[in-house]
Automatic annotation (TrEMBL):
Name of this protein: IrrE N-terminal-like domain-containing protein
InterPro entries: IrrE_HExxH (IPR010359), Rad_response_metalloprotease (IPR052345)
Membrane spanning stretches: none
Start and end residues of each IrrE N-terminal-like domain: 55-155
């Protein structure tokens, strides 16, 4: 199963109809199987691995540190989805993200993945709808979108 880039964006948009965006279901629709792994060290966030037996129809599996808070796990899943969409040719057999989302990819590629992860979890139009409806507290918005307050405060403070 290979979706084109516009098809992938369409799948993402379909999952952004309401908050919180369901990251595992989104991954599933992109052909990625997500595994939550116990007993990982805290400074390991996630991996995306080419795997015929554990991967989804795309041939890739995402592994997430089960010990992390749900908001963090959701961000990690979105971050690995972003690597799949943006950097698939660099994944090779697998790509490992440490606690600060650093891998063997360049810092600028990691920044791209973080940006797309934020775009996935906190879509502008949905966020603006909530703000227009009077939800202006960062804490409440973070709760609605199931992201950390720090991620939401960056999102709300940034122009785009
Ligand atoms: Zn990364």
């Amino acid at each position: 199963m290979t979706l084109t880039y516009p098809e992938q964006l369409e799948v993402i948009q379909k999952h952004q109809a309401s908050a919180p965006v369901q990251t595992v279901a989104l991954a599933d629709d992109l052909g990625l199987k997500v595994w939550h792994v116990p007993n990982w060290p805290d400074d390991l966030s996630g991996k995306i691995v080419k795997s015929a037996d554990q991967g989804g129809p795309s041939g890739y599996a995402i592994y997430v540190n089960k010990g992390h808070h749900v908001n963090r796990r959701r961000f990690t899943t979105a971050h690995e989805i972003a690597h799949f969409i943006l950097h698939r040719q660099f994944i090779g057999d697998g790509l490992v993200d440490d606690g600060l989302y650093r891998s063997r990819l360049s810092n600028s590629m990691e920044a791209q993945a973080n940006k797309l992860a934020a775009d996935i979890l906190m879509p502008r139009n949905l966020l603006n709808q909530h703000i227009a409806n009077g939800v202006t507290s960062v804490a409440r918005l973070a709760e609605i979108f199931q992201v950390s307050e720090s991620a939401m405060s960056i999102r709300v403070g940034a122009p785009n």
